[in-house]
Design brief:
alpha/beta; Rossmann fold; 2 domains; 18 helices
C-alpha cells in the first residue's frame, strides 16, 4: 500500500474542508435520520490513548471514525494532515501495515496524531504492528482508534495489545433510547414509536430506508444477510448449517432451548458443533445468549438450556423472512408482528438486549419443581435483581427470596433504565 493510494481516502490532507464531503458524513450529518451515538463522547482525543471498538458490520463504526476526524480538524486539536484513516482490508499482512505506519508516523512522532484503523481484524496478528510502533516510542502523541466486526479476533489480539490506556467499547445498533431521539421519528406517539422500533430495528441503513421509502427494502435485508455469511466464511463455517441454526434461533424465540433441540432435523452431528456456531454468532454481535442461573453456585449453569435472542429486531426480519425467500420481507414482518403473542416475544427480546448492553453477565432463571421462569436476572453490588417481561401489569410472587419486577410496554416507555 503506497502513500498515493492512502491520499485518496484522506483528502483532508490537502483540503481541510474535504472531510465534510466524505460520503458517509455527507449522507448522515444534518439529516433527519442521523443517529447521534453516545460512544462518540467516550473517544477522547488524548495523546497515547487507544480505543478498540467492537461491533457488527454496518452498525456505524466507520462513521464514528470519520466523525472523530471531523471533530479533530474542526476543533484544531489535530492538524488535518495528521489525521489518518486506513481501511485495513487493503493490507495483506501486519508487516505491510507496520511498514506503512512507521513511514507515516516517524516524521510526525512529536506532534498530535489521530490514527483510525478500520476493520483491523482482516489483518492476522495486527497487534504486532502496533506493538512495534509503541515500543519504538512512535505512538506516544497519537490517539489510536481501532475497529473490528468480530469479537473473537479483537479479543485474542486485544489481549496482546498492552497498556493501561487501552479502552474497549462495544458498538450496537441504535438502542430504543437512541431510536426515540432520531429527528424524523419524534412525531410518533410513544406506543406507535415502540411498534415501529420492533419493525425497523436500530441498524442505520434500515432506519434510513424507512425515512426514504416507508419500509426496509429487501436489498437492505440482503446486505445484512451477506454480512452474516461473509463473516462466517472467514471462519470456515458451513453456510447451510449456519442457516439451520439461525432458523432454529428464530423459531425458538423466548423459549428455553438445548443444544440437542437446536440441531434436531439437521445434518449437525454433535452439540459441540452447535456450540461453536452459536459462539460465533455471539462473537459476531448477532445474538445474545442467556444462561440459566444456578442459585446454589451463584452463577450460570452452562449445561442447562439457554435462551437465545438476536441483538436487534431487524435480524428477525432477515432470518425469519428474507432468508426464507419471502418477497417484500418488511410487509411480512409487519404482519407477523400483528400477532400479539409473537409481538410479546419480540418485546421480550428488546428488553433482554436493553439489559444485556448494560449488565454482564445476564441470566434467566427456571425452577423445574415450581414450574416457574424469570426472564431476566443479574447481580449488581452483591444484590439479585429479577425482572419478568409481560404484555400487561400484574403482581408476581417473589422468587429466590426477592421481589420480581414486571416490565410491560407501558413501563418500558416510562423510561426503564
Amino acid at each position: 500500500m503506497n502513500l498515493n493510494s492512502i491520499k485518496i481516502t484522506n483528502p483532508w490532507w490537502e483540503d481541510r474542508e474535504a472531510i465534510r464531503q466524505d460520503p458517509r458524513l455527507s449522507q448522515l450529518l444534518g439529516k433527519p435520520y442521523y443517529i447521534d451515538s453516545p460512544t462518540k463522547k467516550e473517544l477522547h482525543l488524548k495523546p497515547g490513548q487507544r480505543f478498540i471498538l467492537r461491533g457488527a458490520r454496518q452498525v456505524g463504526k466507520t462513521t464514528l471514525l470519520k466523525e472523530k476526524i471531523l471533530e479533530a480538524i474542526q476543533s484544531q486539536q489535530i492538524a488535518p494532515e495528521n489525521c489518518l484513516y486506513l481501511s485495513c482490508e487493503a493490507f495483506e499482512s501486519f508487516k505491510e501495515l507496520q511498514e506503512f505506519l512507521t513511514s507515516w508516523v516517524a516524521p510526525k512522532k512529536n506532534t498530535p496524531l489521530l490514527l483510525c484503523l478500520d476493520e483491523v481484524t482482516f489483518i492476522p496478528e495486527w497487534q504486532r504492528s502496533l506493538l512495534w510502533l509503541i515500543n519504538a516510542g512512535l505512538l506516544q502523541n497519537a490517539t489510536t482508534l481501532i475497529t473490528g466486526s468480530n469479537s473473537r479476533d479483537l479479543k485474542i489480539s486485544g489481549e496482546r495489545f498492552p497498556g493501561r490506556n487501552v479502552k474497549e467499547i462495544k458498538i450496537y445498533p441504535a438502542s430504543w433510547d437512541q431510536f426515540s431521539k432520531i429527528e424524523f421519528l419524534k412525531k410518533y406517539p410513544p406506543n406507535d414509536l415502540l411498534a415501529l422500533y420492533l419493525k425497523v430495528g436500530g441498524f442505520p441503513h434500515a432506519i434510513r430506508d424507512f425515512y426514504e421509502y416507508g419500509k426496509v427494502r429487501d436489498d437492505t435485508y440482503e446486505t445484512y444477510a451477506n454480512w452474516i455469511f461473509g463473516d462466517a466464511h472467514r471462519f470456515q463455517l458451513n453456510r447451510e448449517l449456519l442457516i439451520h441454526l439461525l432458523f432454529r434461533i428464530f423459531d425458538t424465540l423466548s423459549s428455553q432451548v438445548t443444544w440437542q433441540r437446536l440441531i434436531e432435523k439437521s445434518t449437525i452431528k454433535s452439540y459441540e458443533t452447535a456450540l461453536d456456531y452459536v459462539e460465533h454468532l455471539e462473537m459476531a454481535f448477532l445474538c445474545h445468549v442467556s444462561n440459566c442461573y444456578d442459585p446454589d453456585k451463584e452463577m450460570g449453569a452452562p449445561r442447562k438450556a439457554k435462551k437465545i435472542y438476536f441483538v436487534d429486531p431487524l435480524l428477525y426480519g432477515v432470518v425469519g423472512g428474507f432468508l426464507r425467500g419471502i418477497q417484500n420481507a418488511f410487509v411480512w414482518w409487519s404482519e407477523t408482528l400483528s400477532n400479539p403473542e409473537f409481538r410479546g416475544k419480540i418485546f421480550e427480546s428488546l428488553v433482554v438486549n436493553h439489559f444485556a448492553r448494560r449488565q454482564e453477565p445476564l441470566y434467566y432463571w427456571y425452577s423445574p419443581n415450581l414450574k416457574r421462569e424469570i426472564d431476566i436476572l443479574f447481580i449488581r453490588e452483591g444484590q439479585l435483581f429479577l425482572y419478568d417481561v409481560k404484555s400487561q401489569s400484574l403482581q408476581l410472587k417473589p422468587a429466590l427470596g426477592k421481589e420480581v419486577a414486571v416490565i410491560t410496554p407501558h413501563e418500558f416507555l416510562r423510561g426503564l433504565r
